[in-house]
Amino acid sequence: MIKLDSKIPEGPLAEKWTNYRASQKLVNPANKKKQDIILVGTGLAGSAAASSLGELGYNVKVFCFQDTPRRAHSVAAQGGINAAKNYKNDGDSVYRLFYDMIKGGDYRSREANVYRAAEVSNATIDQLTAQGVPFAREYGGTLDNRSFGGVQVSRTFYAKGQTGQQCLLGAYSGLLRQIGKGTVTMYSRREMLELVVIDGKARGIITRNLVTGELEKHSGHAVILATGGYGTIYYLSTLAVNSNGSAAWAAYKKGAFFGNPSFVQIHPSSIPVLNEYQSKLTLMSESLRNDGRVWVPKKKGDKRPANDIPEEERDYYLERRYPAYGNLVPRDVGSRAAKERCDAGYGVGDTGLSVNLDFKDAIAKQGKKAIEDKYGNLFEMYEKITGINPYEEPMRIYPSGHYTMGGLWVDYELMTTIPGLFAIGESNFSDHGANRLGASSLMQCAGDGYFVIPNTIGNFMSGEIRTSKISTDAPEFEKAEKDVTEKIKKLFAVNGKQTVTSFHKRLGKIMWDNSGMSRNEEGLKKALKLIDELKEEFWKDVKVPGTNDEINQELEKAGRVADYFGLAKLIVTDGLNRGESCGAHFREESQTETGEAKRDDANYSYVSVWEYKGDEQEPKLRKEDLNYEFVEVKERDYK
Amino acid sequence: MNKMLRYSSLTKKYVMALAGFFLMIFLLIHLGINLFIIPFTENHQDIFRDGVHFMTTNPLIKAMEIFLFGGFLIHILIGIILQIRNWMARPIRYAKANNSQGSFFSKYMIYTGAVILIFLIIHLGNFYFVKLGLTEAPEGMTRVADDHDFYSMAINLFSNKIYSGIYIVLFILLGFHLNHAFQSAFQSLGLSHSKYTPFIKAVGDFYSIVVPLGFILIPLYFIIYY
Amino acid sequence: MNIKLKIWRQKNAKAKGKFVNYSLDNVSPEMSFLEMLDALNNKLIIEGDEPVAFEHDCREGICGCCSLYINGTPHGPGEKTTTCELHMRSFKDGQTIVVEPWRSKAFPVMKDLIVDRNAFDKIIAAGGFISIDAGSSQDSNAVLVRKEKADEAFISASCIGCGACVAACKNASAMLFVSAKVSQFALLPQGKVEAVERVQAMVAKMDELGFGNCTNTYACEAVCPKGISVTNIARMNREFLYAKIS
Q1: Mean pLDDT on C44-51
Q2: Is C208 on the interface with B (CB under 8 A)?
Q3: Contact flag C30-A454 (C-beta cutoff 8 Å)
Q4: Which helix (H) or strand (E) holds A179?
């Protein structure tokens, strides 16, 4: 039986990472050249890891399903990236960043990992800056900062509303440099469909060449997943439409445990659903809440245009409910507050499912130019999609599925429960607890890629210096390939009448209605049943056109949706198990009289870790107890 | 030739631009002399002939002539090489022609250039080759001393209305060519600046209108007064 | 509204393609162009036909996947817009829309409207980076950068690598793409160290891959969804000239 060992190093919090690095095993440069590492996913975490591991001298094979690594969805992160530089002299420190993250995560994350994430954040900013990422600057030439939700300091570095793009392109350029040098080999337009485990260790993957349909076997001494989150399980989300959870799901089925799958962040500000054809919800960065004020009319069902509603008839409900943090409350709080107002009948827009985000006061105070400088591209984007000019009228926003705090369970070294299989960035569960604070996702991804995994992978790789090249002729590879072939055949064989997308939409609706912003036992139980029914219908009536040996986007989608049925059930099962409200996970049964989330530390202060037991079997729950040694666990209060 | 093909695309562009600049200066001098065909001063004929005399006998100018021909040759040759490469870069054309905005005249540089080249050959046949003695001077021309009587030749040619008409159309096309060429040469050489580029563009517009117009004035004068 | 579509269909890279006409009813003006194509594909799948293959991912104008040449313009009508940000309200009821893939020797068609833009990666790999290994950087504020330069570098850096510039250029030139990257690094002190090598390597790679030359037509600038200016091209010309003569 696999034991859950989080391998947290000894010593005081601030010395753990130093102690770890001082004592972990290393691989000498000559041996690194003989070791192959497979890395799946080229977002910020993947690209940063690939280039860093390439720099160290490992042979790295990198895979992405897009045509080029630069398209990964890190590109869409808008607002910024945190670091504890304290350039603003406003009382920031590594500890403060760590503490904000622990608190923001509602005391459901692992102290040591979070502290390390905060610790490497400064080096990450330096690395990105050195790579030519054009962060915003002050007139004096130094880097500028802004503030983000859930914190009281300004520690967010940004490049207009395109910080993710700029960070990713920085990491991408580093990756391409290594590709040019030959230390990293790039395999684009490849989708990982199976993990190969030999003698208990992750030794390779099966990929489908998305151009020829050919299944390819790739071997390595270790496999790193940097495959992002599974937010598209809601169908409509802020994610790229091709983002998916299949790689993590494959790993889970091969024995990697899944941590906190139900912790899904619903971002408070995205452009609301406008019509039934909608394929995507566009994020409007949290940074907008630095200057934008959120409000709804005080009168129920007030259908007047926003600008016609006088000041005294507006309810700035965030400022009213949370005077200390105001519009900058954390995302889970902001989302729920918006839902509460809309459910109560105060929502605006045709559907009544949106709230106003108003820049009138900011424009009056700072001038249009200043606002344009900060958010110009976001305003443009909003106008393009909605046809409404946000300089004149308030934006209309509504929460939508955004980020998954849950993911593959990893230890301090970011290794999953399968030796040799690592998970970095959003694909792991480790740093954000039950709720992620804004601008900490880029921070974690870049930190994991540049500074954590290059240091921690050595410990495993040092045990592999005597392992020769892994042969792809091993029976495990054959078996894995055969399994994938069969799954593909099965998908074509259904030959039903409904499109893959129609199933995805229905799955998304089940998840949004029952396992979204607010959850209850009845709904969750209903969801389990609905998912099973939908899954059965899928395998009886889905239509996958075309053939396997060509570019077949429907086949790609079908495989991803097929995997989502399982993952959806896991999310719901986890949500059902966690009877408390914490962070983004809001159980209606567990709330205060004023409707705030009520955490239950006595019964749920653990990471729920799920083990796959078979498609038809219930997964097995294990608990990683969260013992807070260094922070006092308190009620999370933004009032 | 082979070596020229191997130069980077940017180097070819620099040469193209520099040769173009040189040709534009030449054009200006050429215009300066030509204008004296029109009798706006009493001794315009003498000035014209002096000018021609100077241009055809001065050793420095003679040396420059080599550069000038080199300039033409390089400009034309590289222009063709670049164009062929550009056509090759899109082996399958669009069904729907590109309607993207951009510099209008730049799309026709190779065509305006080709027409100018044809004229250039005729022009050389009419004047320069006569000077070299490669072709016979047309009948009925007087010779003044040893100088080739370009003045009479010009009058002779411009009295032909069809020639004048072609000449006018051609210089309009040259104007199109120059309109893009002027600012394009600056851009190719990297001489771009948010403050000064609008000024350069304005000068380019001015040059591309005034210079061809100057040339056109001469046949116009003949059409009107003869 | 009803939309008539004339779409390029091509089985694979080797197959000969052709235009196929489609008619689509119930198009809502609120749909994005890609959502309209989703609706078409939905119809095709249900009718037993093969859906149209096109690239898309983020659907919010930042990933650079979408690459459709719509009625003679890359990314269709509208300034600074990617195809995914284009909405059907930009078209008229009953209008015929011709959809083609990017056309360029360096971007071969793979299927239907999907082209291979790997050439861009090759250019970046040739020199579009700052050589700095993780761990060797100094404090970010140790080097001051004038705000104006940083902002300018940001605009150059905001290129999404979609290839609309190549698609629009009558010469299928990649100058805007290459120059944006050269500019970004040329504007920042961090990038100056390798400037001479970078511009030469990137231009050489660009030439090698079969892109055309720049004839300063500026169609690239007009279609760039991120509004990247041709002043970047001038800057690259300057950088390259300096590199050659220094």
Answers
A1: 96
A2: no
A3: no
A4: helix A163-181
